[in-house]
Amino acid sequence: MTAAARLINGPQEAPATVLLAHGAGAPMDSPFMAAIATGLAAGGWRVVRFEFPYMVQRRVDGRQRPPDRLPKLLDVFRAQVALEIDAQVYIGGKSMGGRIASLLAAELGPDSSAGSGIRGCLCLGYPFHPPGKPEQLRTDHLATLSTPTLILQGERDAFGKRDEVEGYTLSSAIELRWIPDGDHSFKPSRSSGLTQDTNWELAVQACNQFLRQQLQGTGARSDQEHRTASSPAP
Q: Under CATH, which number does the domain 7-216 receive?
């Protein structure tokens, strides 16, 4: 298997490392991933991006292929966590990458016997269900998750719109915040008067706030779980 280099942004001496995985269809250097990584790095975090094997192979031959099976995705992410020795580690990703991170957080979180040291999880556009198939929920582990987790979701996300997601049962460890008029990549509609860059900046701000709160031990869930990300808590 061809190995992919990791992309690293931010200072080596950062207070924490954030491991970010890509979504199902775009690589670790997509515009979305680059914007989030560089934004977090500007906030003082060390951000590490990596790719799953199917995406690595796509770079080699240019052929589209489906994501690897769930056990392999988890193994690859687990191996990335193991590389971060003696670091405060947060894990997360876009869409599929965030889902895998949340599953790993359920396995290796603060209450697990594995004692991984994972401090929290970031899900950027969580795929609550396939588009057009709201009955196929991917939420079982989210109801009992004990690792502090931030889910940022576009209000128009076809993988889980606001009116759907607010009816789901989610763990009290999860903070859910909304990107105004955003789709699955947080892009707003033209009629909204908002811009994609502005929404990406809002996402970075929300992630920065979450990370700071967790490191300071003030990240308990409160009445902000359904707050729109454009109005971050003070």
A: 3.40.50.1820
